[in-house]
From TrEMBL:
Molecular function per GO: single-stranded DNA binding
Name this polypeptide is given: RADX protein
Taxonomic source organism: Quiscalus mexicanus
Domain of life: Eukaryota
């Protein structure tokens, strides 16, 4: 059928009600958001953001309500979608934005694609990767992997991807979202090494929409975390990484077929791991317990 592209949509959306189908690749995926309130009677108050792209650039796509439980887990980073009967709206101004792996890619930030169960009922088709043709001009997923030796030179709030061997994973802890709030964030601390430094990555991993991964992080697994943010803890200048709204976490059993397996730094890490003695690494691993971070000063005077 006749297709349109994201660049053409941005120029013509105000003058149209119906739009031609779109062929796009998912480059980023947010966590699933629940926006239900007791006074509002809604069956499925869910929402998820994706960043999708074609040859003309990148745009936000929003999955609404009952489409979330049906489609959220099938829509992975790298998935190619054929969309028809979608709606176009002005962008929500306060949403978070991931840092694209390709800094040259054009971003269409004024509008977003809305996928709804009605008004109009969106038609979603997932195109298997083996059927995707080069002539469609869809961009590949690109990453911003860093090594531990590069981390200390990066500015606060810089966005990056990391891979490492887990040497420590703490227990799950909770923090209030707001003071006196009944809502909590669930998170855990982890350490991962990649052979480029004596220091590990210190990772603050909040529970994303991947409970099956979050609950099964354990020492000696290869851990990949994408769209992490660099945090500098003053005055000690301790650097750690924390998850963002668009972070994805992967452990052993989940790596197969992921686009990052082609990345040069991922291949270098696997080469390094193959040269290591598993027995030596196991001796250095720790699991559970309370992890005070940032560490308190050694004396009350400094405190």
């Amino acid at each position: 059928s006749k297709l349109t592209n994201l660049g053409h949509l941005e120029m013509t959306w105000r003058s149209r009600v119906h739009f031609h189908p779109l062929l796009v690749r998912i480059l980023h995926k947010s966590r699933l958001k629940y926006y239900g309130k007791p006074e509002k009677k809604m069956d499925m108050p869910y929402q998820a953001y994706f960043e999708v792209a074609d040859g003309s650039g990148m745009m936000s796509m929003v999955l609404w309500n009952s489409l979330c439980p049906e489609w959220y887990h099938s829509m992975k980073v790298g998935t190619v979608l054929l969309l028809a009967k979608y709606a176009i709206k002005s962008s929500y101004p306060f949403k978070t934005h991931p840092t694209p792996g390709d800094s040259q890619m054009k971003r269409f930030a004024t509008i977003e694609i809305c996928l709804n169960v009605r008004d109009p009922p969106t038609e979603i088709n997932i195109i298997p990767e083996e059927m995707v043709k080069p002539e469609w001009g869809l961009p590949e997923v690109k990453y911003r992997f860093i090594t531990r030796s590069e981390l200390d030179d990066l500015p606060h709030n810089h966005s990056c991807d990391v891979i490492g061997l887990v040497t420590f994973v703490g227990r799950a802890e909770r923090a209030r979202k707001r003071e006196h709030s009944e809502d909590f964030w669930l998170y855990r601390w982890a350490h991962a090494i990649d052979g480029t430094s004596d220091q590990p990555f210190i990772l603050e991993l909040f529970a994303t929409s991947q409970p099956d991964v979050f609950e099964h992080i354990h020492p000696m697994t290869y851990l990949v975390c994408t769209q992490m943010r660099v945090m500098t803890e003053n005055p000690s200048r301790t650097v750690y990484l924390t998850t963002s709204n668009e972070s994805q976490i992967f452990i052993k059993g989940w790596h197969k077929g992921q686009p990052y397996t082609k990345d040069a730094k991922v291949k270098n890490f696997i080469q390094w791991m193959e040269s290591q003695s598993e027995a030596d690494q196991i001796k250095k691993t720790v699991i559970g317990g309370y992890y005070p971070f940032p560490r308190p000063p050694d004396s009350f005077l400094k405190y």
